[in-house]
Design a protein that fits this description.
about 15% strand; about 35% helix; single chain
Length: about 200
């Protein structure tokens, strides 16, 4: 069978109870990086879990270059609509860019709650999206790290089974910047309601 999606990186659906979890992977990642969590939530807690594949991911890097941030939000909305037919309430769980998508889309869709893991608020280098787009015409990709794959802080055993694009598409970084700008605009400006004092009685 000749498929576009990388083997083992396909979306997944795990039927369970009437509470649904939509799991959203990160930038250049695949549903596989969320599967272990989905399997745990399904097996141990009985949740119905859907791991969505974001547009342009889990195939080849040039597919991601062609994708826009609105394609990623549409992927989340597609997953939400599919899951909604099987459950009464939905939670979002997002990793990295998936966390940013969870935050943004929770302002547009009826969700019970969200969990974000390492969600970015802004890019480290504060270039406007148009400058990043312009740069992408001269250089298509940037390496993810300066060292060998799996070097540095990575867990070598976990890295062996990890699937993601080996390079960061610069054009996609511009789309990530636009996504984060939209997320910042959509989030409540008064964050005091979201601060929890662990010592409060």
């Amino acid at each position: 069978m000749n498929t576009q999606t990388i083997k083992t990186a396909e979306p997944f659906f795990l039927p369970g109870g009437r509470t649904g979890i939509l799991l959203i992977h990160g930038f250049t990642g695949t549903p596989k990086e969320m599967r272990w969590m989905g399997e745990y939530l399904n097996r141990e807690l009985g949740f119905t879990c859907l791991g969505v594949r974001l547009s342009g991911h889990a195939t080849r890097p040039k597919d991601m270059v062609r994708s826009r941030w609105t394609d990623w939000t549409a992927s989340v909305e597609d997953g939400y609509n599919l899951l909604r037919g099987a459950v009464d309430e939905i939670y979002f769980v997002g990793l990295s860019m998936g966390g940013a998508l969870s935050l943004l889309m929770s302002t547009r869709l009826d969700v019970k709650g969200i969990v974000t893991i390492s969600a970015p608020y802004q890019l480290t280098a504060q270039y406007p999206a148009w400058q990043i787009k312009l740069y992408s015409y001269f250089k298509t990709y940037l390496p993810k790290t300066k060292g060998e794959p799996g070097a540095g802080w990575f867990d070598m055993e976990a890295y062996k089974g990890h699937i993601s694009y080996p390079l960061n598409p610069i054009r996609s970084a511009a789309e990530l910047k636009l996504l984060l700008d939209k997320m910042q605009t959509a989030l409540p400006k008064d964050n005091r309601a979201y601060v929890v004092d662990p010592f409060e009685r």
